[in-house]
Design a protein that fits this description.
69 residues; alpha+beta
């Protein structure tokens, strides 16, 4: 399996829902840090906002999350 590493700040988070269409055998792993009371770091704000809005459908996206606080 091939792997790629991306800084969330440099990615278009709204494109995550397209992954199943582009990559047949995929797994997205989010390793994110928080600070204070679980606030996102600057480079993860777009990802947290996208998830909080709930407007994007991630149906079919296989993922894992590791949060470091």
């Amino acid at each position: 399996m091939k792997a790629k590493v991306f800084d969330p700040e440099e990615c278009m988070m709204e494109k995550l829902s397209l992954i199943p269409e582009l990559i047949e055998n995929h797994l997205v792993i989010f390793c994110v840090a928080t600070y204070g009371e679980g606030d996102p770091t600057d480079n993860n704000k777009a990802l947290f906002e996208l998830l909080e809005e709930g407007t994007e459908s991630f149906q079919g996206v296989k993922y894992a999350v590791n949060v470091l606080s």
